Model the fold of this input.
Amino acid sequence: MKINCFRVVPWPRFCLIFSLLTLFQTVLAQDARINALLKRMTIEEKVAQLQSTFSARPKIDAKFLNDSHKMDSLFKNGIGMINPDFTNTPEEAIANRNAIQHYLRTKTRLGIPAIFIDEAHHGLLGMKVDIFPSSIGLACSWDTLLTETIYTYVAAQANSRGTNLVLAPVIDPSRDPRWGRTGETFGEDPYLCGLMGSAVVRGFQGSSDGSIAPNHVASTLKHFTGHGQSESGVNQAASDISQNTLRSIHMEPFRLAIDHVKPAAIMPAYVDIDGIPAHANKWLLKDVLRNEFKYNGVLVSDWWAIDQFYQKHLIAVDRKASALLAFNAGVTVDEPDGKNYAFLTELVKEGKIKMANLDKAVGYVITLKFKLGLFDKKGEISLANANAHIAQPAGRALALKAAEESMVLLKNQNHLLPLKGSYQKIAVVGPCAATNYLGDYSGTTLHNVSLLEGIKNKLRGTNTQVVYAKGVDMALHDDTISLNTNTNAALGKLPDPANNLRKTDSAVAIAKDADVIICALGQNQQFSQEAGVGNPGDISSLDLLAQQDDLVKAMVATGKPVIVYLTHGRPLSINYIQQHADAILDGWYTGQESGNAAANIIFGDVNPSGKLTISVPRSVGQVPINYDHKPSAHFFPYVTEANTPLYAFGYGLSYTTYQYGKPTLVGMTLSVAVTNTGKMAGDEIVQLYVHPKVASVTQPVKALKGFSRISLAAGETKTVTFNITKDMLAYYNQQMKRVAEPGTYEMMVGPNSNELQKINYIIK
Done:
């Protein structure tokens, strides 16, 4: 009997089947090309694909590119990946990349192109780029759609300059705010880190299936794993973490992102886990990442992490031994200069590495190059196209919206904000007023709006006078904004207290006659950055430094209303400010439009909606003070202070008010009605937390498992629904299996991690 498939199979289903067959055929054809290429490659050519080079060491410039001997010495066997020289202008970077790619395609035996790498934490790390909020700020928007849109824009800007792979996002939960890289994270919660990180990857790659869409770039998840809970909050220190905590907190964002968006690359962490550095940890990279999480992308080393085997960790005697450890553990590419993996050729010939394993590793790199379309792209990178992606109005508008959604209103006594009515004089003081600090891993932008500039922009054409005084120096040379200081800031040196006292007196002189004082405080990147040799970034105190508290005290003493605006990359212990300031707006490092965004909020054109994604300690002695602590933690109070944070995870105020109805459960759907009971439209972030009442392994008192950002007009009610899934309720049991055990689960919903209503869900 003959069957007409077009008549039997419904058209949508047929289209799906046809698409899957086409994809399958494409994969088969690609695999065939990869296998054919591997058969043609020498050992040296294979090893070259697992190596990288750093364009600044040696300095690749026009002179180098025109020296055939130097080019042959570096590229004759090909190269896997090429890291940027951050000092290059866009014109220099594009010219160099075009020349290198032309050489690789026409002068090497097999013509295999290279993958060009860039950093792109909150915008491309380069010159003339757009800069968006650091992750810790952007996370406070809880807006995954906006996040995806931002990184779609960043991807296009990066792609226009020939970038193929970006080393972002950082999805490590920060469990210790002393860590200098806290600002690069999405906060303390693994679920939020996983979902925000997934949104970034979707933006970069333009898909959720692992393919790389046109005008997009491949994305790298960082850092697998435990990086955000290192000993004493010190960057790269050991992470003494139990396997359950490692899986539940630190691996969870990676598990979610791998499942949701299939990132092209993952970077292991610098830390050692139970005595084994992550880059040498077979259990971590092979058993968990490859076998359990089914990850099949590239594993790129962190910069000089393999070198640390013989330099810092002391688990190997030299580069050759380090290369063997890293390769056998599963690291695909040696970053940033490939000097360790230069010994792989010897190790293969000595029989210490099997050819099949070498081929498998090379296959990961070649597969990514096919996904990026590098074998089919023959044209050069267009400088005109790159210039068209510079200073676009769309970028500024996106940066402004992101900054507005990221800022968190922490206090608003007597509804001081928004400022309404006529003010004759507004005093803007503080070290973060006239300079808009952008944070670590920032490029340089053509538009960088400070708070002072934003307020002047807002009040232009009015009769209000804006006066300014710095008040204190935050650090020596603290006004400097350049790409160099933002990628590798100088050592933070505190200024002379006596000089700061004189500056504070000057600030009082101009502020005492003002109607209201806006005091801009915080930290610059010298005190909040990735720590390395010669540039510390971790910190042992969370208090404001450089007499900034004294400046606030002097402003409060004038008797005028005081609004504090914070710029920083980690939570700060602002006890005096919390008690005595009239209003507090947390601005984090929110990118190039921070000043305009803050002014829009301060004067009421925008209703603040951000909510904290990291708990704010009262003092450094409280650390860790994470909201998702175990039941036995924080059980007893301290002698000298409360055992609760100054501000809780999920907290943030609005200019309007919201009322939550009682949550209901119908089947596997939880619903809650939320009403805007105020007079101003606003966005509310509804949060869902889960806690099993009894479990075989101790569980956090609550864990975030869902959230929804909704817009409500004044008086409007919306019903928010959450679908309850087994994955939402699952946790690791004593056998380290992820299961949803039978029992009663408390489903908690509300505006933050403290103000919650409960309803029970039962698994039989």
